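Researcher: Sequence recovery benchmark, item below. Answer with residues only.
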């Protein structure tokens, strides 16, 4: 099984995963509508890997392009990243989120069924655990309905994929629950490109370090954590990417339905991340403690044992490396995209 369709492959996690796949000699076909990504990332993927990828600019909601890909590319497996992912936007625009994420996934699955392609790896999220009572969260931790439409789309898509598998056991479905992806490729050429002012912690800190924003607001210091600030399981995006290659190996064994947490098992507080980033960037990062952000939970980190046992995968990179790589991307790859400089 060598021909992989990567939906959303120009995006943050998709681009890093594509590089890992090309390194392992998979043939990659990308379908992306570029709604949250930049086509210049495609050239950078090709430069970094020294290989060509087949790229279709288009939408998972568009049957004509899906038919064309499945008819022409001999796809074995789909890695499905394409989705909208902003928690805040999803509250303001629930219909756009349900349409893109849910209808898009259903449309993709129907196309896969038409062409008898029954292997899929799906990008899920730790958000499906909600505010779990016991840490770390394992795959057996009871699920809770997320508080926002984005999170709900992830829970619903997990259910849809599970029902598809139940209806026909010849499908192989791997649901990967990501914790908090951060960092960037070590080259600094590809990384996360948030639209406008970032919502997530590390992209925001990075902009403060770059002098683009004055300070970071720390949302609450009265959680039951080491220093009162929120604790999360940050995972290097390259570790996350390699988890997808391991999941593909599992699919090749005809695994049926499988669910894995992809996290490090370690939690870091907001203040600890700020400190690690100060070290990486060699800059002081100003912060202010403000009110808790509505919908936030205090602590969330993974029990990653199952992925280790069944996939032979575990995260390699520590928080310092995540910050160093993010900062390199901020100063080189991202800067050159914004300023439209030719870097490579
Ligand atoms: P991203 O926005 O960088 O990448 C998503 C890509 O999908 C973009 O290139 C976008 O242009 C494309 N896309 C969106 N809708 C599309 C459509 N209808 N048709 C074709 N292409 C479309 O996001 P990311 O951070 O790489 O996330 C990838 C996946 O992982 C998403 O499903 C996201 O929900 C999930 N996830 C992300 C995080 C995170 O913190 N980054 C955490 C958990 C889960
Ligand atoms: N935080 C701040 N200030 C900021 C941004 C974040 O203090 O400006 C804090 C948050 O309160 C939290 C921590 O930093 O304690 C991490 O926040 P992020 O927004 O980076 O990440 P979340 O854990 O809130 O959410 C992320 C993704 C969601 C996903 C969830 C679970 O953004 O899409 O992980 O996987 F659902």
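Model:
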């Amino acid at each position: 099984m060598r021909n992989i369709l990567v939906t959303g492959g120009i995006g943050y996690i998709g681009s890093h995963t594509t590089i890992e796949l090309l390194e392992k000699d998979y043939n990659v076909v990308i379908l992306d509508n570029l709604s949250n990504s930049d086509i210049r990332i495609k050239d950078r993927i090709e430069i970094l890997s020294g290989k060509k990828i087949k790229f279709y600019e288009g939408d998972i909601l568009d049957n004509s392009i899906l038919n064309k890909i499945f008819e022409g590319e001999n796809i074995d497996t789909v890695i499905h990243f394409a989705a909208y992912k902003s928690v805040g936007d999803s509250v303001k625009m629930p219909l756009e989120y349900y349409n893109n994420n849910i209808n898009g996934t259903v449309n993709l699955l129907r196309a896969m069924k038409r062409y008898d392609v029954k292997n899929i790896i799906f990008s899920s999220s730790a958000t499906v655990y909600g505010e779990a009572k016991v840490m770390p969260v394992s795959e057996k931790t009871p699920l809770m309905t997320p508080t926002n439409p984005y999170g709900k789309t992830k829970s619903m898509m997990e259910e849809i994929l599970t029902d598809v598998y139940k209806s026909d056991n010849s499908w192989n479905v791997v649901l990967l629950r990501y914790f908090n992806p951060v960092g960037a490729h070590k080259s600094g050429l590809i990384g996360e490109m948030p639209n406008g002012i970032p919502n997530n912690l590390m992209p925001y800190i990075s902009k403060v370090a770059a002098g683009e924003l004055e300070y970071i607001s720390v949302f609450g210091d009265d959680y039951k954590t080491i220093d009162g600030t929120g604790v999360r399981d940050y995972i290097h995006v390259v570790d996350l990417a390699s988890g997808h290659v391991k999941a593909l190996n599992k699919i090749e064994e005809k695994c049926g339905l499988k669910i894995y947490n992809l996290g490090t098992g370690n939690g870091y507080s907001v203040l600890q991340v700020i400190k690690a980033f100060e070290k990486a960037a060699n800059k002081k990062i100003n912060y202010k403690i403000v009110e808790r952000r509505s919908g936030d939970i205090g602590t969330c980190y993974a029990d990653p044992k199952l992925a280790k046992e069944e996939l032979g995968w575990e995260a390699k990179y520590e928080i310092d490396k995540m910050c160093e790589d993010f900062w390199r991307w901020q100063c080189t790859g991202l800067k050159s995209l914004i300023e439209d400089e030719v870097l490579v």
